[in-house]
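# nightly structure sweep
# worker-07 picked up a monomer target from the shared queue
# config: single-sequence mode, recycle default, output format = structure tokens
# input follows
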Amino acid sequence: MHLNPYGQDAVELAADLANRRPADAEELADRCRAAGLVLELPVTPHDLDHAQEALDAWEKVVDATDEHERAGLLNHMLAASTAHPRMTNHTGTGWHMHYRDERLSLGSLLFSLISVGTALHLSGRGMHRLRRCAVSECATIFADTSRTGRQRYCSPRCANRDAVRRHRARTGPSAP
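# output follows
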């Protein structure tokens, strides 16, 4: 059963692609397949360009300074990339919703998937649940899927590093 083919998985794919941009169309296709996307058409360099445009627009959503700016930027992405909802069983694995036209190129599919997935993630979990890591030297983007909605770090490694830094700042230099 497909409850939501967009949402969290789409936002996590967007974060993965934004944090480590694909070098070429083949890498983009491989990473999308690994994330579970079904690619119906051959992947071209134009798909990589279109995916990069989608990721550039998405990073502006991530870096928005308030909810209204974030919603406005995301609404612009949605208007540019989505179609009316439709039921589909294109893979033969069960009926589910798509918010895009059928048989899109990978670049267009990603633009739609990222837009709708981000909208569902933010409207369902909270407008603040998409950000960059709180460690100043780390620019990694992550989707906050924690129960409490207070995740500040992209990984336990960054959380631990920042905790050690705060502890050392409070206690001063250690004795030899």
